[in-house]
Amino acid sequence: MNGIQRRQIIIGSGTALALGGLTTLVRAAPVKPGPKDALIVVDVQNCFVTGGTLPVAKGEDVVPVINRLAKAFDNIVLTQDWHTPGHASFASTYPGKKPFETTRLAYGTQVLWPDHCVQGTQDAALFKDLDLPKAQMIVRKGYHQNVDSYSAFLEADRKTPTGLEAYLKQRGIRRVFIVGLATDFCVAWSALDARKLGFETYVIEDATRAIDLNGSLAAAWKQMTARGVKRIQSSDVEGAA
What is the mean pLDDT of the chain? Predict the structure, then answer.
């Protein structure tokens, strides 16, 4: 994972209209997933839930929501943070550095994290209660020693692709729905890259949870909204039993 300064904020679950001094929330119309749509499940791993090495508050609460959503999709992709020991994004790699401080790497400012999601460990495994029998692909990211990776599409140097763009486009996917952990880092970076790459992009808010480091959640929503990412709830998705 890398430099949050570049990912700044917003929010809104629909459009607020002022009518006679009253504020009315206009929700998005229901969305029905089809054969050209994909659900992207971001980093729902042991390291990011309660008891993990970098837990997101109530991160495990997204799992039953994601399992329900998955019933509505024919195309499902998962991502998996997959770091080497002594990774460049770990605070422990730098004497005297503490988690959540920053350092400079070749590609810019890097947030330093506790050691997490180390390759081959139980901490890096997908959370056991995920029930996604239609999942077709797992994209592992962050496995290059000196480059972090938040996005499902591009690593933190902003030039190393994960291969997901080509996979989705070759299969004719035009619209992506992003869920998982954490809203303000890997989910947001994935959504912003998806838009930049030409996909119609939704983030399903109640199927995500955030770290919210120094205002990062508000910043992420602000930037996602500004770039045309649509913010919806699982109840807006038809067929999510």
Answer: 90
CB 239 within 8 A of CB 72: yes
Assign 208 to helix, strand or coil. strand
What DSSP state is assigned to residue 14? S
What are the backbone dihedrals phi and psi of residue 202, each rounded to the nearest 5 degrees, phi first? -120, 140
Q: Which residue stretches of the chain have pLDDT < 70?
A: 1-28, 241
Q: Are 91 and 98 in contact (CB under 8 A)?
A: yes
- Residue 39, SS3? strand
Largest CA distance in the chain: 60
Residues with catalytic function: 43, 141, 186
Cα separation of 57 and 62, whole Å?
Answer: 11
Q: Give yes or no for a contact between 186 and 151, defined as CB atoms under 8 angstroms apart.
A: yes
In order of 68, 74, 117, 181, 201, the CA distances from 241 in angstroms are: 6, 14, 31, 22, 22
- CA-to-CA distance for 2 and 213, rounded, in angstroms? 13
Query: What is the Cα Rg of the chain in Å?
Result: 17
SS3 for 188?
A: helix
* Nearest-angstrom CA–CA distance, 29 and 36: 19
Q: pLDDT tens for residues 62-114?
A: 999 999 999 999 999 999 999 999 999 999 999 999 999 999 999 999 999 99
The one-character DSSP state at 184 is I
**Distance from C-alpha of 79 to C-alpha of 66, rounded to nearest angstrom:** 14
